[in-house]
Each structure stands twice: as C-alpha cells, then as structure tokens.
Design brief:
alpha/beta, Carbamate kinase, Aminopeptidase, 8-stranded mixed β-sheet, 7-stranded mixed β-sheet, 20% strand
C-alpha cells in the first residue's frame, strides 16, 4: 500500500504553487522561493512540477488536520467499498480527516424525499457503517462509528429555494459538533448514519444530503475557532478550525453529464454561471444513468454557499480513488476544461464516464460589447495588477473606442478577456493584398487576457477561456451554447482567434496546449485557434479527397497567406503600457 500511495502522490503532478497552497493549509509554511511568481502573470501558472525528491517529504510534513465532508453513496460491493476506504486512508495520511456519511440509493424514499423509516432500513444503514469502518481500519485509517444522533430535525412547513415544499429542516447543535471536532483533532474518521433526532427526541432516518447540509453549515459557521477569511491561509498553533475544505461525493455514477460533451462528465463547473443551464439542459436519458446527478449538484451548491472561497466539491466514481489525492493537493479538475475538445475526448487520458467533476462556487461571467459599459477604473486595476505594469490609459481606451469587439468579465473584474478587431483598415484600403488574403480580415485578436493574482489557480482562468472559445473559434457549434450573460449562446459563425505573447513568457506552454499553432515573429510568438466549425468541415473534405486518391493538402486554399497577413498586423499593434 505504501508504494501505491507514494505513486499516487507523484502522479498527482502538483506544481510548486499547488504544493505551497497545500502546505499552507496543513502546516506552518516554510520559507518560500518565489521565483515562479516573477513570471508575467497573465493567465495561469506554467505546469512546474515540484521536485520528486522533496515532494513526498513536503506533502507528508503536515502538522495539522483539516476535515472534509464525504458522502459514500452506495450500494457498493466489498471490492468497491474497499477501494473507497483506501482513498479515504490516503487522504488521512495527508492530513485530511474525512467526516463520512454513508448513504444508499436503493433505500426507498417518501414523497418528501425522506427515506422510509423502517427497522429494515435502519439495520441496513448500520451494517453500511460497520462495513465502512472495517475497511478503513484494514487500511490503517483510524475510524469510529458515530451511533449517537448528531443532527437535529425541526418540523416545519416551508419552501426551499426552488419553491418545493418541505416538512422539516436539519441543524447541528454544539454538542453534536463536539463529536466531530474531537474526531478531527485526534485524526479519527467518524462514520455517521443518515439519521436525525426530532423535537420529541425520536431518532429517525433522513436523507443523507440533509445530514451533509446541516454538518457543513454548522462546521463552517462554528464560533469555536478564531475567525478566518479562508482556512487555506497559514494555520497557527492550537487552531481548532473545523471548517470543511472539501465536499466529496463518491458514487457509482461518476461526474455530472455535460451537454457540451454528449453525456461525458463536466470537468469543472462554475455554479455562478452554469447551475441553471445544467439543470435546463439535463437530458431525459441521464435521469436513468445518473439519477442523483442533479440532487448532488444542488447539494454542492448549498454547501459551497457557506464554505470558504477556496472550498470545492468533487463528484467522483468509486473507480477513481486516485482522483481524491490529486484534488486534495491541487484543488483542480482531472483535466483542464479549457483544453481543446478533441484532445479531451480523443486524446491520451481522455474523459470517460468515471472522470470526476470538480464544482466551485465560481464567478458570474458576462459579455460587454460597448466601451460605454466598461468600468475603466476596475479594468485598469485588473490589468496593472495582473501584468505588473502601468497602463497607458489614454491611448489604450482610445484604441478600444475604435477597435473593441467584446470584453468578457469574470465577477467584479477578477478576470477579463478582451478581443479587438484588427486589420479593418487594411481590408478597406490595401490594393497589395490578394482576394484570398483579404478573406482573413478583420482579425479577431485577443488583446488582453488577465486574472487577478488572488484568483489564479481557483478555476477563473479556465472559466474565462471556455467563454472565450464559445464566443470566437467555437461559435456556431452546439456545444458552444452557454448561459453567460450577454453571450451569443452558440448562434453565429466561428472565427479564428489570434494573439501574441513575448517569446520568453513562461505562460507560452499553457498557450501551446490550447492553440492550433504558433509562429515566431521577432521577439513575439503569434498563436491562433482555428474556427472549429470550419476546421471540422475541412476534415471532412480532406478525408473525402484521401478516399479518392487525391493528395490531401495540409493548408487549404482559403488558409493560404493568412499567417503572413496576421503576423504583419499583430506585430504592429502598439503596446498598451507606459514606457
């Protein structure tokens, strides 16, 4: 087991920044070499794995324990449950103590979504608790069944946020919270049944999701620990903060099906901009293959509402225990959602039904199409903090008045992607360009892509890039439909997207992975993403030609000359920065 555990740590492939964030949560951080932060912080960090020689030692050097709320959503066979327990044991070694709630999909529920109260159901759930503890102990993870009733039930008639009628709500009193706190401090995994005690002191079965909601709320708002803005910040001596860092839902279904991926799982979800859209586009077929996907999505939303900003939820199949380690250390999805669709669906390590879904509270995403609607003060602050340079505001905003295409804004200017039209004048006035060359104008140019340093690594980069793809090179495809405010919702014709970056920019590796190509122009590298709608059509043409024995062109007629035209225009774009 030790070799397998160490291999899982190395396979997680955390960057230096990932490792530092993890250590900040679980120990007093050592002096840090900040070399990696001296890069141009435009979009994301380059993938810089921590040294394998120090990685394991550092990750196992935690001096604190932090809790995660875990729903084990069976029924599972012994083999399956043992795999789940092994994952919990790994997390425990890394300092994350799982507060486990066992649940089973095969226990009937009444009209209020409450499991039918019966002695048979209670015996079944008690047996699940015993089995879970047994397998945890087998893998040397201290665990104890919690047979006392931690959750209280308040009978009431009220409506939830969706307007559905409910007959009860759940909460945890301080006495119940003490049981959890003692277990976390001692590193012993508590395993709970989905039960609650009503006003008449009668214990009864309730839904596992209701137990989790009550626990997360109580643990996130407990006044026993010094107030903290975020438990991911460095800890102090004698800090008994039991705010949960993660919500983990381990099931048989895998991640939440995605409309854009034809039923394969979402890699990451931005609740602020995607929750309603996912609900509205959930296919009827998925109700049978993923019957609890939507209820788990709502559970994640309710929990993340009270969890700290760094908190996340992971919905993962029992077949992907290694994903638990990777998520704990990096707090990132298994694959970046901003990678090209073809690479994610067809490439090595492609998405499968059992690929986990990472859920964050996220930020709203909106499209701004008029310079009059830009908050110039906030955009200037974002650009200057991200690029660490002073903006030549007069020239920059004068250029936007003339050339802006659109601006994508994440949250309250926590991140932004700015696109401009370039080459319109050349198309209208130049007689030296061929007709073919002029078809490549004007260029949809990514002028600025920026995320505040405080939001780098929290998913904002991926959420912005996906929105950018849907408005430019992915436009016109079914999977480019989205619910972002002011978006085109997939309606239109896709456009090639072009941008430039300093040749020595460390972020270029990130760009390489997301572009269709690049070329070097002096001190610049020019990248581009081909319009996917057009490229898919060309693939069909190329395949048909190949079938007929006609030589297949790598560059079609309509693509000739475009790089030269783009390069000349892009290279001449003036700097936005003050000298």
């Amino acid at each position: 087991m030790e070799d397998e555990f160490l291999l899982s740590l190395l396979e997680a492939g955390p960057s230096a920044r990932d490792s530092r964030k993890y250590l900040a949560s679980f120990s007093r951080p050592p002096p840090v070499n900040d070399t990696i932060t001296d890069m141009d912080p435009t979009t994301a960090e380059p993938k810089e794995p921590a040294s394998a020689n120090t990685l394991v030692t550092d990750l196992l050097s935690h001096t604190a324990r932090r809790p995660a709320i875990v729903k084990i959503q069976g029924p599972f066979s012994d083999v399956q449950l043992e795999a789940v327990a092994k994952g919990m044991a790994y997390l425990q070694k890394l300092g994350l103590v799982s507060v486990i709630i066992v649940d089973r999909d095969d226990i009937g529920v009444d009209e209020y979504g409450k499991p039918m109260c019966s002695s048979e159901a209670r015996r079944l759930m008690l047996r699940e608790v015993e089995r879970t503890v047994q397998f945890l102990v087998k893998h040397r993870a201290p665990a104890t069944p919690v047979l006392s009733t931690v959750v209280r039930i308040k009978q009431a008639d009220f409506e939830d946020e969706e307007g559905a009628s409910k007959k009860y709500e759940t909460y945890v009193e301080e006495e119940g919270l003490d049981v959890i706190r003692r277990a976390v401090e001692e590193g012993e995994i508590p395993v709970l049944m989905p039960v609650g005690m009503d006003d008449l002191c009668k214990s009864q079965m309730i839904g596992g999701n209701e137990v989790i909601r009550a626990l997360v709320h109580a643990m996130s708002t407990s006044g026993s620990a010094p107030p903290k803005t975020d438990p991911a910040s460095p800890i102090e001596e004698n800090n008994s903060d039991i705010t949960p860092l993660r919500l983990l839902i381990i099931n048989r279904e895998g991640g939440i099906p995605s409309y854009a991926r034809a039923g394969l799982p979402h890699l990451s979800i931005n609740l602020e901009s995607e929750y309603d859209f996912i609900q509205n586009t959930f296919a009827n077929d998925w109700l049978s293959s993923h019957p609890t996907a939507l209820s788990n999505l709502t559970l994640a939303r309710d929990c993340l509402e009270v969890m700290p900003p760094s908190g996340s939820a992971l919905i993962v199949s029992h077949k992907s225990p290694a994903a638990l380690i990777a998520n704990l250390i990096t707090n990132k999805p298994a694959h970046s959602a901003s990678l090209p669709h073809a690479l994610l669906v067809e490439g090595e390590g492609k998405i499968t039904r059992h690929t986990p879904t990472l859920i964050r509270k996220g930020l709203p995403i909106r499209l701004v199409r008029s310079t009059q609607d830009i908050d110039r003060e906030k955009l200037t602050r974002l650009l200057e903090k991200s690029f660490r340079r002073s903006l030549n505001q007069e020239a920059f905003y004068a250029r936007l008045e003339r050339d802006m295409d659109f601006l994508i804004v994440a949250g309250d200017y926590a991140g932004a992607a700015l696109c401009t039209f370039e080459g319109r004048q050349e198309k209208e006035t130049s007689t030296s360009l061929s007709t073919t060359d002029k078809t490549h104008l004007p260029i949809c140019y990514l002028d600025k892509f920026a995320v505040l340093p405080s939001h780098q690594g929290d998913g904002t980069v991926d959420f912005l890039w996906v929105a950018l793809r849907d408005e430019t090179f992915g436009l016109g495809l079914k999977d480019a439909a989205n619910a972002n405010i002011g978006s085109l919702s997939g309606v239109g014709t896709g456009r090639d997207l072009v941008w430039r970056s300093r040749a020595d920019n460390p972020v270029n590796k990130w760009y390489y992975e997301r572009s269709n190509g690049f070329t070097t122009r002096g001190t610049w590298k020019m990248f581009w993403c081909d319009a996917e709608q057009r490229i898919r059509g060309l693939k069909g043409v190329r395949a048909a030609k190949g079938d007929k024995g006609i030589p297949v062109k790598v560059v079609e007629d309509e693509e000739k000359g475009r790089l030269e035209v783009w390069g000349d225009i892009v290279e001449a774009i003036p700097s936005a920065w003050s000298k």
